[in-house]
Write a sequence for this structure.
């Protein structure tokens, strides 16, 4: 007797990935003993040391358990369980966790299905192996200045594209789509990579080190360790990374803290998106400027520094965390987004986001670098041409679809 | 911990830690500006806490432009104002009405008596490919006027414009400039196919500094991939060569396009095993590992 | 030795009044003119802005009007747009259809406005004003209501056909093109196979409204042709920057713009003979020390008999219109 475990989606190599958000998994008994109507099966996860863990439930909930007993029809009819990563137990590589099915009666193993709890993590906490995989994927994406990275540079430049990305109500949704597109490009190179974030209201000694994002010298030239993949980073035909010396390994940048970003002066969470999104200046703009020089301090040049993507990942994490503390995930909730001010084309709830909407759209920049938003082998959301509203419920708390990413300190709460 | 409980705790901690902080206003700045000397640190703090909310934005930006332009104020205060103007720039629509005045201010500061202010202004101007700043920097590199920033910095700033006119100057400085200037000039030539010969010569010259050879080797991989492939093969396997240069060449082969990857034959992969076993350098080992993985991936098709 | 920029500005200052002067000034806008050679892109913009501003108070020849319209449609440079605005503001009867182009330009550079000092070429700099102010003044010239046009050809409409060219097969024989798949072929052989549409571009172009958009639109046209029952055509884009735009860069650039690569739809560079091709088509492209310093948007129909005609690149904005025009051209070609 065996149990067939089928996750909703797999990549071309037959791998699947989950986040904290449970997904619907189909279980089916094969070759059941004759005469049995049901087979009691225990579902657990098996982890390598430091590996990911799973939680199981019979409905979509954040209250899954580590050990779930289900009774599967012996005739092979499929049954559904919900499987997600166990909060705060992410994977560090593919297969460091597997979903296990055992026969309750005999304890015999009926199935073992490897997977990865793939989560965006604090860059300062990555293992050396995670860091190196991320850097290598980043360098390949850059391709010495000729890789797909160029599109991401061209999406975030001055002129009309600037009005799509900055200033308006859609600043956060736009950057969420941009980062997701970027992360999916990285994952097309190495599926085990996810985008780490730079928590800019704390010191990050492991991040601002020669082995990771480098250390700027007095000429703003970022120094890397020998053989570092980013030595081959080329942006605008110039080799290397330039960055001012404002943030060193022990610097705590002078930016509004996470708590103050999420809450008002009374310590209550900002009641709506309109109040929360003022974070566009501080901590967001202040984090850019904390480096005191180099492309990362300029809105139209910032993606020339790969650190930019880690900085913005934290901006997105702050939005995700505000959504978590307020429980406001539903795009239909008027508090979830605000288009009453600074909502020109591209920033209104139902506007398609540029450049994924394609070229030559009325009132939008005529060109559209990079094509549609890259698809994911594990989820259909947010689709190739997302709208502003599509970027809100990233975890699929209300919607049936999730976007395939989550943060290490932001739980799924149904 | 249960995620609901975690959320409750998080909210409770935020509530308990709430401190009535107030973003600074333009009035606060005015008070500091007229106070006795010695208040520069507090003024810098107030500047960085200055509210740029919609209702305060215009007044705040005007005040910041005034502070940055004010020669009687201390350098740190003016630098803090420039930095906060940079934050304000992250709202391009709101900043639009100040943009022309901002550029004018930066152009004036580019020749300020204070070197730090000059450098900060030129940094921001060259990020925008400002022609006045570029002209100034080129003149200093040609020694037609006194330097406004160190020459290595001038090269770096000029290199930000890949449609600029300083390429011939970079080629010259990459050969003849002082140490730091040469390095910056080589970085600036990354995509210059006409410099392939120079890159190859520096990359293979064991008398050159490894840091310089590293840049030259990587540039060659872009400018002349076929020549790089030939050169890199020798460098990677040459145990008498500098680890740093060997590591850079190995990484560049692993991460670059098809020209270099053609060399990843089974014979070469075997030689890499030997090279990896022979070195004590962790970074070289790691780069050779990366190259071996690339060779294995190629072998798998 | 005077700086080439100063030399170029002096040349502008020396242009006399009258029709000859107007024509000389218009010719100074050609991106391939000698005075642009060796300048950076920013320096070219300065020269261009000065040439355009020198038209203030003069008659605008049709060629100058076309240049102004093109700059207003695509330029991101405050000094160029200020010059264009100055030329129109001082014109006796500016064409009415310039107004939406002026408004578009004003909006496009709103976030990058700066003070520009025009008139330096004539040694009579007026007080510095911002490009935005210059554009606003030019718009005010049109008043509130619609302005009657001067009666000439509209500058904002597709440009009138330029005289057809007859390419010399012998002279172009040394031109070898290499496409994104590293396939090399003789350009003449390729053009002789069937009617071709030839676009020029380069991957390092920093103005997204020029090359990036044009190649994207060319891809849409290629798809339209492939899907329809249209007789077959070559849809080709050739790089202005052959040393830099190697096959892998062309491939990447096309893939990013959804270009439907096929034997008849290719991005190419000249592996040999670029200067011959450039000269045969009188390409409006100039070079600085690093790369292209400025270029027009250029599109040609070429018949199998090597008859060539420059067409307005805005034609690509609508794939079916462009396909129809290409069909008409092929039908009318004597060969």
């Amino acid at each position: 007797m065996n149990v067939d475990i089928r996750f909703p989606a797999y990549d071309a190599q037959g791998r699947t990935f989950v986040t904290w958000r449970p997904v619907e998994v189909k279980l089916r008994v094969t070759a059941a003993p004759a005469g049995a109507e049901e087979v009691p099966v225990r579902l657990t996860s098996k982890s390598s040391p430091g590996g990911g863990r799973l939680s199981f439930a019979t409905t979509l909930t954040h209250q899954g358990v580590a050990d779930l007993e289900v009774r599967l029809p012996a005739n092979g009819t499929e049954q559904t369980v919900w499987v997600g990563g166990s909060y705060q137990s992410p994977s560090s590589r593919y297969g460091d966790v597997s979903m296990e099915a055992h026969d309750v009666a005999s304890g015999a193993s009926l199935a073992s299905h490897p997977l990865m709890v793939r989560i965006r993590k604090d860059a300062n906490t990555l293992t050396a192996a995670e860091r190196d995989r991320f850097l290598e994927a980043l360098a390949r994406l850059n391709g010495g200045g000729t890789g797909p990275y160029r599109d991401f540079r061209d999406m975030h430049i001055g002129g009309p594209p600037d009005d799509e990305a900055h200033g308006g109500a859609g600043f956060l949704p736009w950057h969420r789509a941009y980062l997701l597109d970027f992360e999916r490009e990285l994952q097309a190179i190495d599926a085990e990579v996810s985008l780490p974030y730079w928590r800019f209201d704390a010191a990050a000694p492991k991040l601002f080190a020669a082995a990771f994002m480098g250390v700027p010298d007095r000429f703003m030239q970022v120094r890397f360790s020998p053989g570092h993949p980013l030595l081959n980073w080329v942006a605008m035909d110039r080799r290397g990374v330039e960055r001012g010396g404002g943030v060193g390994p022990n610097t705590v940048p002078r930016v509004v803290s996470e708590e103050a970003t999420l809450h008002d002066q009374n310590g209550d969470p900002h009641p709506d998106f309109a109040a929360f999104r003022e974070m566009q200046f501080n901590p967001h703009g202040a984090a850019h400027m904390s480096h005191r020089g180099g492309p990362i301090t300029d809105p139209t040049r910032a993606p020339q520094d790969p650190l930019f993507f880690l900085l913005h990942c934290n901006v997105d994490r702050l939005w995700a965390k505000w959504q978590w503390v307020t429980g406001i995930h539903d795009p239909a909730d008027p508090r979830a987004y605000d288009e009453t001010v600074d909502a020109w084309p591209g920033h209104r709830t139902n506007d398609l986001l540029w450049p994924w909407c394609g070229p030559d759209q009325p009132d939008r920049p005529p060109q559209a670098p990079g094509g549609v938003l890259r698809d994911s082998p594990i989820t259909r959301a947010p689709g190739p041409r997302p709208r502003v509203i599509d970027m809100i419920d990233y975890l699929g708390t209300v919607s049936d679809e999730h976007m395939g990413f989550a943060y290490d300190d932001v739980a799924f709460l149904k | 911990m249960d995620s609901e409980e975690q959320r409750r705790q998080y909210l409770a901690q935020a509530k308990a830690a709430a401190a009535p902080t107030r973003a600074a206003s333009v009035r606060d700045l005015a008070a500091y500006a007229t106070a006795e000397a010695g208040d520069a640190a507090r003024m810098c703090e107030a500047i960085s806490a200055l509210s740029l909310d919609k209702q305060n934005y215009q007044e705040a930006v005007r005040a910041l432009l005034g502070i940055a332009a004010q020669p009687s104020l201390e350098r740190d205060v003016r630098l803090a104002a420039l930095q906060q103007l940079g934050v304000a720039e992250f709202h391009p629509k709101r900043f639009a009405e100040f943009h022309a005045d901002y550029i004018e201010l930066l152009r004036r500061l580019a020749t300020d008596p204070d070197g730090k202010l000059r450098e900060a202004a030129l940094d921001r101007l060259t990020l925008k490919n400002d022609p006045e700043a570029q002209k100034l920097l080129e003149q200093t590199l040609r020694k037609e006027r006194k330097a406004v920033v160190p020459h290595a910095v001038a090269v770096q700033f000029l290199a930000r414009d890949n449609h600029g006119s300083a390429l011939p100057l970079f080629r010259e400085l990459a050969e003849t400039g002082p140490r730091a200037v040469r390095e910056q000039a080589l970085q600036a030539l990354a995509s210059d196919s006409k410099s392939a010969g120079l890159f190859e010569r520096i990359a293979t010259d064991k008398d050159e500094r490894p840091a310089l050879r590293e840049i030259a080797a990587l540039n060659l991989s872009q400018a002349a991939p076929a020549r790089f492939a030939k050169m890199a093969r020798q460098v990677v396997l040459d145990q008498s060569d500098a680890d740093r240069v060997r590591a850079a060449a190995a990484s560049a082969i692993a991460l670059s396009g098809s020209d270099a990857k053609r060399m990843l034959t089974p014979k070469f992969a075997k030689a890499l095993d030997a090279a990896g076993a022979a070195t004590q350098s962790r970074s070289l080992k790691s780069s050779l590992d990366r190259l071996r993985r690339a060779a294995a991936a190629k072998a798998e098709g | 030795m005077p700086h080439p920029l100063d030399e170029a500005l002096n040349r502008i200052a020396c242009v006399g009044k009258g029709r000859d002067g107007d024509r000389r000034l218009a010719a100074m806008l050609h991106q391939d003119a000698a005075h642009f050679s060796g300048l950076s892109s920013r320096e070219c913009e300065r020269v261009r802005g000065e040439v355009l501003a020198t038209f203030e108070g003069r008659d605008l020849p049709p060629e100058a009007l076309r240049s102004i319209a093109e700059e207003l449609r695509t330029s991101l440079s405050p000094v160029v747009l200020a010059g264009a605005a100055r030329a129109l503001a001082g014109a006796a009867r500016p064409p009415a259809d310039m107004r939406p182009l002026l408004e578009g330009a004003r909006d496009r550079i709103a976030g990058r406005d700066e003070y520009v000092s025009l008139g330096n070429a004539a040694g009579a700099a007026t007080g510095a004003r911002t490009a935005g102010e210059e554009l606003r003044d030019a718009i005010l010239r049109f008043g509130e209501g619609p302005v009657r046009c001067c009666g000439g050809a509209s500058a904002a409409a597709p440009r009138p056909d330029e005289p057809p060219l007859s390419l010399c097969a012998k002279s172009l024989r040394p031109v070898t093109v290499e496409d994104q798949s590293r396939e090399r072929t003789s350009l003449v052989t390729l053009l002789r196979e069937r009617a071709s549409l030839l676009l020029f571009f380069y991957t390092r172009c920093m103005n997204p409204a020029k090359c990036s958009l044009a190649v994207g639109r060319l891809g849409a046209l290629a798809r339209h042709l492939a899907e329809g029952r249209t007789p077959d055509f070559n849809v080709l884009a050739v790089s202005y920057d052959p040393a830099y735009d190697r096959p892998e860069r062309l491939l990447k650039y096309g893939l990013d713009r959804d270009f439907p690569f096929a034997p008849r739809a290719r991005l190419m560079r000249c592996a040999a003979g670029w200067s011959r091709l450039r000269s045969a088509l009188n390409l409006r492209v100039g070079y600085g020390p690093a790369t292209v310093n400025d270029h027009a948007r250029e599109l040609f129909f070429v018949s199998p008999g090597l008859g060539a005609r420059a067409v307005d690149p805005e034609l690509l904005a609508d794939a079916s219109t462009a396909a129809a025009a290409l069909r008409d051209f092929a039908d009318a070609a004597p060969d």
